[in-house]
Amino acid sequence: MLILAKAYGLGPHGTASEFIFAGDLVQEAYEKLAPEDQLALKAAGDHPSNTASDLLQVRGAGVGGPNTTDNAVGPDFNLVVPTIDNGNPAISVFSLPNPNPGQLLDLTWNTFGFGVQRLMRQIKSLGRRLDADICVGINEAGLVMATFLASAQFNRCSIGYLRCNRVRNEITFAAESHYPESVEAPVIVICDFEVKHADVVGLVARELRERYPGAELYFAVFGAMTKGNSLEVQSFDDLTGATIMQAARFDAVFIAATMSPPGIEPPLELR
Known about the structure:
- The protein is of the alpha/beta class.
- It has two domains: 2-64; 76-269, 3-Layer(aba) Sandwich (Rossmann fold), CATH 3.40.50.
- It is 31% helix and 22% strand.
- The chain has helices at residues 2-8, 22-26, 35-44, 52-64, 109-124, 139-152, 200-211, 242-247; strands at residues 76-80, 90-95, 105-106, 134-138, 158-162, 164-167, 170-173, 187-195, 216-225, 252-259, 264-265.
- It has a seven-stranded mixed beta sheet. It has a two-stranded parallel sheet with strand order 3-11. A two-stranded antiparallel ribbon has the order 6-7.
- The chain is globular, with a radius of gyration of 20 Å.
């Protein structure tokens, strides 16, 4: 695709005014490519007169808004997390450095999609096939994650939705929350956008175990906050929500990225 875009992007004489990006040639098949191929198409498919950073700015502007660029993604590192018996405890996580400490880090759709793909890869590397009966999204951002995972990873399984209402220090579930019908003792993947200090996932786990007796619960979260300044944590216990996730007794935990306070904001301010 890179070679074809270079060869034909400006026509046979190189005089056409419209340049063709390599990613545009694959169109909807782009989402099915491996993450490294997607990054190659974005980073190396620019016109010779453009730099790689210029291309990222142009491509990011088309997705996240007129003045946004793709988020900087830190290096991958391995993290040992709670998992099933005889499962693979090591997951590959990336960090999300915040260039403006003290402010929420607004994510672009490119970064959001990259994180969902990372969760999919971790699920595939669990050590055995994970067939979910229900994907449950916590609030709107979690619902988007659940929709992507259910469609791409779990053969379009049922999708649930838990909308959390916070009144002072108490969290309740709104009436519009949805609990789909399912088989007895279902396998449920809970999707949440971020884990900080609040025990939302513990409350969700208790609610789902009451609704679905005998259920297996798996937890997939986009961003997990770290206790210290380093995002490349050495231990699961270095995450602020480690105790919360352990107390919820999930069969396995999947984490796409680590983040620093005050956290991250999903695209279009999904809550």
